[in-house]
Amino acid sequence: MSRVLLSFLFLFAVSTLAATETQVIGNIPGAGNKEIRIIAYTDQVTYLDTVIAQQFIDPNGNFSMTLDLTETIYTRLDIEYFNIELYLEPGENYEITADSISFQGNFRPYYKKELLNCIITSGKNNLNRLISDFNKSYNQFINDHFEEVYKRRKKDLIQDFRDSLQEKYGNVKNNYFQDYMRYKMASVYLAAMPTRQAKLFGEYFYKQPVLYQNIEYMYFFNQFFSKFLTSGSREIKRADLLSTINYQNSFSALIDSLGKDTLLRNEVIRELVLFNGITELYHSPDYSKKSILNILEQAKAESKFPEHRLIAGNLIRSLEKLQPGTPTPAFSLPQLNGEMFNFPEQNSKPVYLSFMTTWSYACIAEMELMQKLYEKYKDRIDFVTVSLDQDTVVINKFVNEKKYPWTFLYNGDDYQLLYDYGVKTFPVFVLIDSNGKIVQYPAYKPSEIIEDTFQRMIKESTKKE
């Protein structure tokens, strides 16, 4: 079981509520034999994904998945190029009936998913339908009154719309939906009243529970406290941040210093604001990256709040992922001849790893240039290309016609590999040293200045020899 999934399950385990079985069944014509995954966020500060259920759809397009939940969560059903947004409640049964889909000639990047038309039915209150109906009204309101809301700041207009929502949905007995609607409207008020922070804080955060799993609450929280540590607070001084991070290197001292701001008297809010802003500090040249990672390690071990210990761990993984000097994600994939290739175990030299598809003109152009690099550096650097084409016949034909001599691998339906390497568009290149650690991500392409990096790396290697 992956560390991310374990972290996700841990978040639910800390709840005092018992886990309740939730079932998702459905039919997606045309998706037979494809893998379907239910993907959730491990937390809504880092927004790291985790797969919480998965299976292969049967030849007739049917699937059925069961999972245990302790609270309502936002998820996505993911099938290659398509996804379905789905809110899951503990103990509920969901039935999904989708339009027919085709994967033939589907040449879209994996990151640009198409929302699949479907009908979602469930038992008690059909949260998904409620949210869908509300979003239609909300989007229509914003579309009709964008200028008045975001430029003329007409608060009365927003209040009238809010009153109409209360009249329509006030009797709905679903806490997640009521909070979802309330905090989505809070985001509108934030845009219309950006200088009224104290008022908005008092209404939406003061003596209010932190709704870690409500997607609109967390979106509003993240927007409200965006850049709060560096420019949003008069009481938080840069000198204090520099002292507690770079010199004291202390999570507790940093948390205490943030308490100077009256909005952050509540310790739960204070820690969450720190997590919200720490990525900005990490990427600033003023603050020690090593100290920030050490402070997050302290938070992971010392925070009183289980959710925050989880978030701190996820922040560490997020900030370190694919950074120079970190271990490269391992994988095992078939070569075009059918033999398995285990990476990085099978490599004793530096590796120039690439992800490509034959339907991308940019990929084809880079492969042409890679041929020249391979001929020049094949004795000092291994070249490995992972094909993301759906059909092995296509990639085999491509490689054979071009007579490319380096290692080509076939990814198939391996979602985890794309996630591990952050593949969101094509081509992607990664440079890895002989010890299996990241040198450069994303690495320069063959059409850029990667050869300079090759020569520098070989020169350094020669010195060590």
Distance between the termini: 40 Å
Q: What ranges have pLDDT less than 50 throughout 5 or more consecutive residues?
A: 1-16
CATH hierarchy: architecture of the largest domain: 3-Layer(aba) Sandwich
Average residue pLDDT: 91
Structural class: alpha/beta
DSSP, total strands: 16
CATH class of the largest domain: Alpha Beta
Rg measurement, Å: 25 Å
Biggest pleated-sheet summary: 5 strands, mixed
* CATH domain fold name of the largest domain: Glutaredoxin
Instruction: Classify the helix fraction into a percent range.
Output: 40-55%
**Shape category:** globular
Q: What name goes with the CATH superfamily of the largest domain?
A: Glutaredoxin
As laid out across the biggest beta sheet, the strand order is: 3-2-5-6-8
Task: Please give a structural write-up.
By secondary structure, the chain is α/β, with parallel strands linked by helices. It has four domains: 3-124, Immunoglobulin-like, CATH 2.60.40; 144-224, no CATH class; 243-320, no CATH class; 331-464, 3-Layer(aba) Sandwich (Glutaredoxin). 44% of the residues lie in helices and 19% in strands. The chain has 16 helices and 16 strands. It has helices at 3-13, 127-151, 155-169, 175-192, 197-204, 215-224, 228-232, 238-247, 251-258, 267-282, 289-302, 306-320, 361-377, 392-402, 415-420, 450-464; strands at residues 20-27, 35-41, 49-56, 62-69, 73-79, 82-88, 93-98, 114-115, 118-122, 331-334, 340-343, 351-356, 382-387, 407-410, 428-432, 438-440. The strands form four sheets. It has a five-stranded mixed beta sheet with strand order 3-2-5-6-8. The chain has a five-stranded mixed beta sheet with strand order 14-13-12-15-16. A four-stranded mixed beta sheet has the order 4-1-7-9. Strand 10 (331-334) and strand 11 (340-343) form a beta hairpin. Helix 1 packs antiparallel against helix 12 (306-320), helix 2 runs parallel beside helix 4 and helix 10 (267-282) packs parallel to helix 12 (306-320).
